[in-house]
Amino acid sequence: MDTPAGYLHWGFILISIPNLLLIGLMVVLFALALVIPLPGEKEKP
Amino acid sequence: MSSWTARAREGMAKRLPMENLLPDRQPYYVGSWVYVFGVVTIAALVLTVLSGIILALAGPDWWHISAAGRFFNSVHFWSVQVFFVFMVLHLWGQYFMASWRGGRATTWMIGVVIFAISIAAAFTGYLSQQNFASQWIAVSAKDALNAAGLGAFFNVLNFGQMYGIHVVLLPVAIIVLVALHILWVRMKGVVQPIESPRPPTRSTSEEV
Amino acid sequence: MQRKPATSQGSMPTIRTVPYDLLKEVAIAMVGCLVLVIVLAAALSSPDVPSVTIQSWAQADPVDFTTTAANELAGSTTSAGYGAPYNNADAGQTLGPIAPSKWAGVRQPVDGANDFVINPLTHASVGDSQLTTALTAFQAASDTQKTGWLTAYAKALGDAKVQDGKVTVASGDYGAVPVLMDRLLTVARSGGLDGLLLSSGHFYQTDFTKPLLFMADGSYLAGLADQQHLSGSQWGMMNETGQYPGQSWLWLYTVWYQIPPFNTAPNGDLLVIILMGVLTLGLLLVPFIPGLRDIPRLIPIYRLIWRRYYQEEARG
């Protein structure tokens, strides 16, 4: 874990892969929270 | 003159009766995973504080020289990451629910202040690491703080000052504000869903 | 039907409620979070790149060390020309009449030539008659003479050679400067300068201003930071050493440093601070800002969050 991280360089954006993965994970978590029903709920047609 | 104590008690009981502080029922519309982000943020904060207490007990050098110390530092590090992840998810959720409606602006504002103070707490934490990262963060951050006139009073190159602020002052501030944030949520109840669009004269902040 | 949350202060009719165990939810969140954090900590550990010392700097790059020390004597380093809170050499960053650093004043006085070079050498001159002589000669010289020596020496350092950790330059008229620089390098390589700069005559000390400012005046620390993508122009504020996530939440703060005018303006820091202050205030006051507070209605993510409610309402 101590070796240097990879970086994504896109235009003026320069982001580390760990940070990119973390932010990507956050977006995925938010989207999932929006659509996944709570346990015990049934989606009505 | 009536009793201050009685008036305080009655005022508190009126503003936040026990059934609202510790309810066992909630409006049926509170049914989304988005509602979970807040409590996970609090859970992460508790872990951050607990691991921080252990690190403080053992002193700032311990985690560099002991495997157990390194482990507790790692718990502290990752609980901070989890804290920020879920705090920001909670912020996104509350924003898109316009949760400040119905007299809840104070709750929102307390939340933003917690966010700002948490950033300061993380910053002083990074400065307290006593490794290369804290050296670099200190010499880099000093320029912005000096430009703002704050560097004269908060010397980021002064480890003792930053450590004390990180370990005592900011955790107390965060815990007090989080407690107030929770109390406000319980006092006002969970905000209701946004109703169907109204004519332009009514704005989102006014409707109930 | 009026819709208000079920609170005892409301005299309004209540909305349908469902059972809910608050403390159980808290407990589940605590356990889930604990497991997640323990797994991450055990599997990935945490970053800990060891600190740089003045000793390691002097050993790794003696020419940069010596150049920095000579520049301190000449008063040409970043810290020497910084301004408040260290000295009055510069007015500091301003925006029109706004001059916060100047208003705050010189509260952490630092005199690079004396603090980083002369005073440590004075301590180190005990039993070293050659050093004592050189110090006396340097301090007795006129400012013009000092400038002459230092300018020539700095130029010669461009072609300096390193042998056995020591720095040698082509011969020239440098006065007492080479002896001072040589001795300072020796003290630094032995580790003594770390202690001298930190303690500054006291026993207990937690203020690392002097050793850090001295190191920051050189290129070694910045070079290491650059390798780890920690520099300001590399979005460094967000990054962490190694493969660890950094402080992603600082993205909006650091983005400004990557673009004009902030990345080239001499008062760039002040501009960013003011801008971020305004934006933070904006976030705080969202409930009161028309437009900003209406976006949730315009981007109807809420329809997903409360879809059960809207479905039941539609059914009547």
**CATH class category name of the largest domain in chain B:** Mainly Alpha
CATH architecture of the largest domain in chain B: Up-down Bundle
Structural class of chain A: alpha+beta
Strand content of chain B is under 5%
Shape of chain B, please?
A: globular
What is the helix/strand order of chain B?
HHEHHHHHH
Side-by-side strand order of the widest sheet of chain A? 1-2
Number of helical segments of chain B? 8
Q: What structural class is derived from the secondary structure elements of chain B?
A: mainly alpha
Walk me through the structure:
The complex is a heterotrimer of chains A (45), B (208) and C (316). Chain A is an alpha+beta fold and 45 residues long. Chain A contains 1 helix and 2 strands. In chain A, a hairpin with a 2-residue loop joins β1 (7-10) and β2 (13-16). The radius of gyration of chain A is 17 Å and the shape is elongated. The model of chain A has no long low-confidence stretch (mean pLDDT 89). By secondary structure, chain B is mainly α. In chain B, α3 (37-58) packs antiparallel against α5 (67-96), α5 runs antiparallel to α6 (105-127) and α6 runs antiparallel to α8. Chain B is globular and about 50 Å long. The two termini of chain B are 39 Å apart. By secondary structure, chain C is mainly alpha-helical. Chain C has a domain at 54-226. In chain C, α2 crosses α8 (177-190) and α6 crosses α8 (177-190). The termini of chain C are close together. Chains in contact: A-B, A-C, B-C. At the B-C interface, β1, α3, α5, α6 and α7 of B face β1, α1, α4, α10 and α11 of C.
Helices, strands, pairings?
The complex is a heterotrimer of chains A (45), B (208) and C (316).
Chain A: E1 7-10, E2 13-16, H1 17-35
Antiparallel strand pairs in A: 1-2
Chain B: H1 4-15, H2 18-21, E1 25-27, H3 37-58, H4 62-65, H5 67-96, H6 105-127, H7 132-147, H8 159-188
Helix pairs in contact in B: 3-5, 5-6, 6-8
Chain C: E1 17-19, H1 22-44, H2 54-60, H3 62-74, H4 100-104, H5 112-124, H6 129-140, H7 143-157, E2 161-163, E3 166-168, H8 177-190, H9 192-199, H10 209-217, H11 220-227, H12 251-255, H13 268-284, H14 295-298, H15 302-305, H16 307-315
Antiparallel strand pairs in C: 2-3
Helix pairs in contact in C: 2-3, 2-8, 3-5, 3-7, 3-8, 5-8, 6-8
